[in-house]
Amino acid sequence: MTVEKRTPLPISEAVERVMEHTKPPEKEWVSVEEAYGRYLAEDLIADHDVPSFDRSPYDGFAIIAGDTSEASRENPVTLEVIGEIGAGDVFEGHVTHNQAVRIMTGAKIPDDCNAVIMLELVHEFMENGKPYIEVKRSLQEGDNISFQGEDTQKGTPLVQKGTCINPGVNALLATFGYNQVPVAKKPVVGVVATGSELLDVSEPLSPGKIRNSNSYMMLAQIKKAGAEAKYLGKLQDDFEECLQAVRDALDEVDILITTGGVSVGDFDYVPAILESLDATVLFNKVAMRPGSVTTVAAVGDKLIYGLSGNPSACYVGFEVFTRPVIRHSLSSQTPHLRKTKAVLGSDFPKPNPFTRFVRASIIDTDGQYTAVPTGLDKSGSVTSLSQADVFIVLPGGTRGYEKGMSVDVLFLEDHKGSEWPWSNIVPSYR
Ligand SMILES: Nc1nc2c(c(=O)[nH]1)N[C@H]1C(S)=C(S)[C@@H](COP(=O)(O)OP(=O)(O)OC[C@H]3O[C@@H](n4cnc5c(N)ncnc54)[C@H](O)[C@@H]3O)O[C@H]1N2
Ligand code: MOO
Ligand SMILES: [Mg+2]
Question: Which part of the chain is the MoaB/Mog domain (predicted)?
Fold first, then answer.
C-alpha cells in the first residue's frame, strides 16, 4: 500500500482559497437588548446631532453673558431669577437683561441665554419675595454650554458594519433610536469528533482512551468567533458511520468541522469521506505546524473543515482557516487574527521548513510586548492552549530563532481583527 503524497500549500495561499468560498453576509433584526456581542450588519450613521439641542453641563443659572461684563469680586452684578428648569423641561418664557433661569444639568438652554454659571459660584438671596443671584465674575458668550452637535453631527459615520457590538455601540444604538438592530445572521457551525479512542466527558478513563476535548474547545472557539455552535456528537472510526453522519450534518449546518481522522492512518477516513461526497478539496496539507494536515473542502455552497485530531493542531486550524470565514459572514472587514510585533521570550534553535505557530502568553511591559511560550510546543499538547493569548508566528526556513528577536504575533482574544495578516510575515534575524 502506498501512502498518499500531499503537497503543502503556503499558509497565505490556503487562507486565500477558503476566503474565495465565503458567502455574502445575511442580515436579521434583533432587539437592542439582545444586540450586545452581535455584529452590525449596516453602518451606523448619526441621523441627528448629539446633543440635539444646546444644554447645560452643570446645575446652575442660565444667563446672558453680556450682563456680567463688568462683574468682579468688588463689583458683583445682581440678576433676577425668573424661573427654573430641570432636565427634560423647556423654558417657555422670555429672558431679558439682568435676568437668569435656574437650570439643571442636561436641561435645554433657554433661547435668550448664552452662558451658564455653576450654583457654587453665585450668592443667592431673596428680596421682596423674589429670588436673585449675585455674580462676581465675568462670563463669555458660550461659557459652560454643551453645544448642539458637539459630540457628533448629523450625517457622521460612527460605527462600521461588521463591528462587534460592545457596550459603547449599544449606547449609540439606543441614542439613535434602534429599538431593533440590524445584525449579521450567525452562521451555524457543526462539530463532529471522530475517533474510537474518544470518551464522553462524563466517562471514566480506561486504557488507551482519552476524553473528547476538541469538541468542547471548538464549540467555544465557534461562539467566540461569533457563530452558532452545534455539537453533532462523536463517532467511532468507522467509514460508513462517519460518512452517514457527515451527510446528515451537512443538512443542518452552514459550515461543518470534523476533528481527527484527517491524516494518512489506516482509520483516518476523512479523505475518503470527502471523496465519496464528491467534495472539492481546496487543500489537504499546509506548510504550517501544528495543523499541517488541515484539510478544507467545498460541497455545494458549504465548507467542510477536516481539522486535525491533535488538540493544538485543531485549535490552530480553526483560528487560521475557520474564524475568518465566520467573521466574513458577520460582515467583518477585518476577519483575520490581529497581528502585532513582540519580543520572542525563548530560544527556538531548531530550524523548521514549515511556519510554526507557537502558543504563547503575552507580557506587556510599558507597551512593549514579550511573547512567552505556554507549555509543551507539540501538536498533541492540550495544556499549552489554556494560557495562550497569542500565536507567535515563526516563518519556516533554514535558521532557528533566538530569545529577544522581534517576531509577529497573532492575538487570540481580540475582536478588532486584521485585514490580511499574511503578507510581510518575514523571519527577522538579528
Ligand atoms: N505517517 C504519518 N503520520 C502522521 C502524519 C503524517 O503526515 N504521516 N501527520 C501527523 C500530524 S502532523 C498530525 S496533526 C496527526 C493528525 O492526525 P489526525 O487528524 O488523523 O487525527 P487522529 O489520528 O484521529 O488523532 C490524532 C491525535 O489526536 C487525538 N484526538 C483525536 N480526536 C480528539 C479529540 N476529539 N479530542 C482530543 N484528542 C483527540 C488522538 O487520540 C490522537 O492522539 O497525524 C500525525 N500522524
Ligand atoms: O498537523 Mo500536525 O499538527 O502538523 O503535527
Ligand atoms: Mg490519524
Answer: 190-328
What's the ipTM?
0.98
Confidence check: pLDDT of 430 > 50: no
Provide the grid cell at 120.
Answer: 457654587
DSSP state of 415: S
Q: Name the fold adopted by 11-26+186-329.
A: Molybdenum Cofactor Biosythetic Enzyme; Chain A (3.40.980)
Mutate to test the pocket of ligand 2, among 9, 359, 379 (most ligand atoms within 8 A of CB): 379
Q: What is the reported pLDDT for 2?
A: 75
pLDDT at 366: 93
**Ligand 2 center from residue 294 Cα (angstroms):** 8
* Contact of 57 with 145, CB cutoff 8 Å: yes
If you compute the radius of gyration of the chain from its CA atoms, what whole number of angstroms results? 31
Q: With a 6 A CB cut-off, is 289 part of the ligand 2 pocket?
A: yes
Answer yes or no: is the C-beta of 212 below 6 A from any ligand 1 atom.
yes
Which residues crowd ion ligand 3, with CB under 5 Å? 263, 265, 268
Ligand 3 centroid–CA 339 distance in Å is 31
Does the domain at 29-51+150-184 match CATH 3.90.105.10? Answer given as yes
Superfamily of 60-135 according to CATH: Molybdopterin biosynthesis moea protein, domain 3. (2.170.190.11)
Prediction pTM value:
0.93
What is the assigned CATH class of domain 339-411?
A: mainly beta
CB 379 within 8 A of CB 290: yes
